[in-house]
Amino acid sequence: MRRLARESIRPYWGWIVMACVFMALVAGTTGLSAYLMKPVINEIFVDRNEAMLVPIALAIFATFVVKGVGNYGQSVTMSFVGQRIITDVQHRLYAHITTLELGYFHATPIGSLITRFTVDINMMRAAVSNVITGFGKDALSVVALVYVMFAQDWKLALIAFIVFPIAVVPIARIGQRIRKVTANTQEELGQFATILEQTFQGARVVKAYRMEEYEKSRVRTIAERVFTLTMKATRIRSVASPIMETLGGIAIVLVILYGGFRVIDQAMDPGSFFAFITALLIAYEPVKRLANLNTALQEGLASADRVFALLDRAPVVQERANPQTLDVQGGEIEFRNVAFTYDGTDQQALNGLTLKAPAGKMAALVGPSGAGKSTILNLIPRFYDVTAGDVRIDGHDVRDVSFESLRCAIGLVSQEIILFDDTVRANIAYGKQGATEDEIVAAAKAAAAHDFIMDLPNGYDTEVGERGVRISGGQRQRLAIARAMLKNAPILLLDEATSSLDTESERQVQGALDRLTQNRTTLVIAHRLSTVMGADVIHVVDRGRVVESGNHGELIARNGLYARLYALQFADEAQANAPRHEPRVAAGE
Ligand SMILES: Nc1ncnc2c1ncn2[C@@H]1O[C@H](COP(=O)(O)OP(=O)(O)O)[C@@H](O)[C@H]1O
Ligand SMILES: [Mg+2]
Fold first, then answer.
1. Which protein residues are within 6 Å of ligand 1, measured from CB?
2. Phi/psi class of residue 360: alpha, beta or left (left: φ > 0; alpha: ψ in -120 to 50)?
3. What's the confidence (pLDDT) of residue 419?
4. Average pLDDT in the 419-426 region?
5. What is the pLDDT of residues 271-330, one digit of tens each?
6. Domain boundary residue among 443, 471, 488?
């Protein structure tokens, strides 16, 4: 709570003071409206004083107008503060999440990240504004009303309030339980969002494998669990009601008994008694809200816990305090005795891996699926950090240089191609803001993408849709290559960049890639050996280490794993006379 106050509320204390002034206005007029019952009864009903009739009526009217203005003011200022808190935290949270390492996004269900931004932040806001309104408006109103009561008859007031402390313990316990239940509810809601996202995105697979019933029952199970938890929370929360109603009833009965006795005894005038009972009745609602405040606060704090936990999650891959700027000279990449294990696995993906990609030359990685080829590429832009050993570019450890200079130096076409929900033009220009139309078209032409783009309904302005579902795999791959071409970085990493292309477009793209890779340090993973046969050096990777290196001729002469892979492919090629059948190094891809 202190942290919430320090980080989220403090910038707006001026607004909060203003809101409190309005709330004080509401509280004061609330007290006044109860107090005015006294002259109403005494002057008008008991004394039949006609001269007081209009002034009293006007006073009551004025009280209500001022109360209305106060309510307007406090509700507008409080929403302002509440909405600012949401917006600020969303901004901070997103900014923080962008600093987290890639592995975090792979390990965390997206749905739960999204609930942090929506449900949790909203709960936090509700707690903050409920607490401020609770203390400002309700507590002040109660104080004003209690003052009115004590002013009438302090003994009667003591009798009225003697019962309320009884409620403190059960209501505190309700707060604790509610916090636990809401924490579980948020978790289920996060899972819910994740399932929805996955099954909508994977609708094709769900349909193809006729998993509709299975997914329906999964969604149903979670929805039912959310229902049960929500009902549980409601039951716990509602227990406060009967407690408060009963206590309120006891208070009023005591007041009527004792107060009535005093009035009959003529120890108290009827006006005072009515003012007292009015104040007590009006106080009832704000007291009930104050009793529920703890519950709302606990819900909000449970959410704030989760939001702060995410804000505190330090990125595993971090920039040094004073990083050097990487100024790529040749762009030689060197792995020295590198070991790497993915988080949450106990098997080393790389162990004792040493290799060199010479400056300005093309180096290829080949090897069976799961050998660790993609992992090697991931370590160069520091998507992950090595567990042991080091990765160097031009002799600089990648951990010593700034993210900015490192990632600017690297063009990447990864295995999994992401197109954003935007136009073809914007997707190619991604990462080079302010690219000119000519540059974009030139990159598209070089990636053999221009022709198909012109055939799209709106050319470069065509929206490619979420995940680029409306264009084929090969077309997506060409857009990704165009993106990398436009970036024109000195180091190029290609992870099976041409795997989804048909032979014809591969030939076109291959020509473009040959041009692109000239005088650039290129590290390429390819499933077709034919595309890497011309590489300056080929590293054969198996089970997380380099088992042999050399050019094509040398490796064939060695008669090792490469020669075997090559023979397999050769046999495949000879066997399949249809050119559609593409020989592959990596089985199952
Ligand atoms: N995000 C990940 N989390 C855990 N293990 C992974 C992850 N990515 C890859 N691996 C594992 O690391 C090993 C190497 O994978 P990868 O580098 O993708 O192989 P390749 O690209 O050669 O097919 C495999 O055993 C794979 O299961
Ligand atoms: Mg791979």
1. 106, 342, 345, 349, 369-375
2. left
3. 86
4. 89
5. 999 999 999 989 888 888 887 888 888 888 888 988 999 999 999 999 989 999 999 998
6. 488
Section 442-470 average pLDDT: 84
Of 55-59, 132-136, 505-509, the least confident:
505-509
127 and 97 assigned to the same domain: yes
Last residue of a domain, one of 462, 488, 514: 488
Residue 512's CATH number? 3.40.50.300
Ligand 1 nearest atom to the CA of residue 369, by list position? 23
- Structural domain harbouring 471: 417-488
Rounded Cα distance, 80 and 193, in Å:
29
- Closest C-alpha to 362, from 571, 573, 536: 536
Q: Which residue minimizes the CA distance to atom 20 of ligand 1? A: 370
Q: What is the pTM of this model?
A: 0.79
Q: Provide the pLDDT for residue 514.
A: 78
Contact 377, 102 (CB under 8 A): no
In the structure, what pLDDT confidence band is assigned to residue 466 with cuts at 50, 70 and 90?
Answer: low
Do 232 and 147 reside in the same domain of the chain? Answer: yes
The secondary structure of 483-495, three-state, reads: HHHHHCCCEEEEE
User: Could you tell me the distance, in angstroms and rounded to a whole number, from the CA of residue 525 to the centre of ligand 2?
Assistant: 8
State whether 344 and 253 are in the same domain. no
Q: What is the mean pLDDT of residues 240-255?
A: 87
- Which residue's alpha carbon is nearest to atom 7 within ligand 1? 342
d(CA 49, CA 245): 38
**In a domain? residue 319:** no
Ligand 1 atom having least distance to the Cα of 368: 22
pLDDT band at 579 (very low <50, low <70, confident <90, very high): very low
For residue 509, give Cα distances in angstroms to 148, 272, 437, 483, 531.
85, 93, 21, 13, 11
Same domain, 466 and 501: no
Q: Is residue 317 part of a domain?
A: no
Nearest-CA residue for atom 12 of ligand 1? 349
Same domain, 421 and 299: no
pLDDT in tens, 380-407: 999 999 999 999 999 999 999 999 999 9
Taking the C-alpha atoms of residue 532 and residue 557, their distance in angstroms, rounded to an integer, is 17
From 340, 373, 374, 494, mutation site for ligand 1 pocket: most ligand atoms within 8 A of C-beta: 374
